[in-house]
Specification:
This protein has 340 residues and is α+β, with helices and mostly antiparallel strands. The N terminus is likely disordered. The two termini are 31 Å apart. InterPro entries: ACP_syn_III_C (IPR013747), ACP_syn_III_N (IPR013751), FabH (IPR004655), Thiolase-like (IPR016039).
C-alpha cells in the first residue's frame, strides 16, 4: 500500500525531535552461555549480537516508552503534543491501551492516544498513522513512540529466541510542515501477508485460544518464530519494499546515504544491504550492543546514530522493517538538524 505523505495542500509530517532509551540491565553472551547450550561464537555468528539490555522486575513497556518520549520531546524543544501513538507488541496489559497512560505520565493528559500493533514493523505503521493525523489536520504535533519489553514474552530457556530479543524504546516528534523541508516524511509503503501469520506468533493468551476452552500447552504463552522461513521472507520483503520507497521518493539506490533497517539479526541486515547495493559504511547498525528490540529498533537506532554523529543533517535515509503479521514497511526522508 502506498500511503501518501499528505493531501493536496502539501501539509506533511516533519521529524523535529528524536530520542531513545534502553534499560540499564545488560545480559552478555557470556551470561547466556552459563545457562544455555550455546556459545559466544554461535550467538555472534548467527545473530551478530554481543549484549542486550533487559528490564528489571516490575518494569513495564510504559516505563521504557515514557523515558524515550521524554527525550524526544526534549530534543524537539517543546514538551507538548496533540497526540501520542505507541507502537508495541508488549502492552502493559491487554486492556486498556498503554498509550493513554504514557501520555498522562508525560503530562499530556487530554491528548489523543492509542496503540499500534504491527510487531517489528510497528514504528513504520505508527509513522503512517501519525503522519495521517497531521495530514488530515487532526493534530499539529504528534509524539510517536515505539517500545517493547520483549523479554517478557520470550522463553528464557529457548536458545533460538532468548539470544536475540531485548528491551528498549525509541521515539520521534512530528510536526506539521511542508514536503520540501528536511525531515519531511515521504510516502510510506506498507504491506502484509496474513497467510503466514504463524511464522511469528504467541499462540496463547488471545481470544481464539481463550474461547476454545482448551488450556494452552506449556510454552504457548511465549513468542515463537520459525527462523529459516522468517529469514527468507524478511530479506525478500524488506528488499522489495525498500526499492518501492526509494522509487517513490524519486531517488536512486545510490542516493541513499544511510540505511536504517529493523535490527532483526546481522545475517538479515547483510543480505538486505547487499541486495539493495548499499555499501557497508552506509548501513546503520546497533544490533551488536542492543539486540533485537522489536518495534523500538528503528527509532532507537536513529537516536543513537544521531547522538554518535553517524547520522547527520542532510543525510538521505531509507527506513525499512519486517515483522509478524506478516507485515512490512519502508519510507525515505532527508534527515533534519535535530539533536538526540
Amino acid at each position: 500500500m502506498n500511503s501518501p505523505s499528505g493531501p493536496s495542500t502539501g501539509r506533511v509530517a516533519v521529524v523535529c525531535g528524536v530520542g531513545g532509551y534502553v534499560p540499564p540491565g545488560i545480559v552478555t553472551n557470556e551470561d547466556l552461555t552459563a545457562r544455555l547450550d550455546t556459545s559466544d561464537e554461535w550467538i555472534r555468528t548467527r545473530t551478530g549480537i554481543a549484549a542486550r539490555h533487559v528490564i528489571d522486575p516490575g518494569t513495564a513497556t510504559s516505563d521504557l516508552a515514557v523515558e524515550a518520549g521524554r527525550r524526544a520531546l526534549k530534543s524537539a524543544g517543546d514538551s507538548q503534543a496533540d497526540a501520542v501513538v505507541l507502537a508495541t507488541t508488549t502492552p502493559d496489559q491487554p486492556c486498556p491501551a498503554t498509550a493513554p497512560h504514557v501520555a498522562a505520565q508525560l503530562g499530556l493528559t487530554g491528548a489523543a492516544a492509542f496503540d499500534v500493533s504491527a510487531v517489528c514493523s510497528g514504528f513504520l505503521y505508527g509513522l503512517a498513522a501519525a503522519s495521517g493525523l497531521i495530514a488530515s489536520g487532526t493534530a499539529e504535533r504528534v509524539l510517536l513512540i515505539a517500545a517493547d519489553a520483549f523479554t517478557t514474552i520470550i522463553d528464557p530457556d529457548e536458545r533460538t529466541t532468548a539470544v536475540i530479543f531485548a528491551d528498549g524504546a525509541g521515539a520521534v516528534v512530528l510536526r506539521a510542515g511542508t514536503a520540501d523541508e528536511p525531515g519531511a516524511v515521504g510516502r510510506i509503503v506498507l504491506g502484509s501477508d496474513g497467510e503466514h501469520h504463524d511464522l511469528i506468533e504467541v499462540p496463547a493468551g488471545g481470544s481464539r485460544q481463550r474461547s476454545s476452552g482448551i488450556p494452552p500447552e506449556p510454552g504457548e504463552e511465549f513468542f515463537r518464530m520459525r527462523g529459516r522461513d522468517t529469514y527468507r521472507m524478511a530479506v525478500e520483503r524488506m528488499t522489495a519494499v525498500s526499492q518501492q520507497a526509494v522509487e517513490s521518493a524519486g531517488w536512486h539506490m545510490e542516493d541513499v546515504d544511510r540505511l536504517a533497517a529493523h535490527q532483526a539479526n546481522a545475517r538479515i541486515l547483510t543480505a538486505v544491504g547487499d541486495r539493495l547495493g548499499i555499501p557497508d559504511e552506509r548501513r546503520l547498525s546497533n544490533i551488536e550492543r542492543v539486540g533485537n528490540t522489536g518495534a523500538a529498533s528503528i527509532p532507537l537506532l536513529l537516536a543513537q546514530a544521531a547522538e554518535e554523529g553517524r547520522l547527520t543533517a542532510g543525510h538521505r535515509v531509507l527506513l525499512t522493517a519486517f515483522g509478524g503479521g506478516l507485515a512490512w514497511g519502508s519510507t525515505a526522508l532527508v534527515w533534519p538538524d535535530v539533536a538526540a
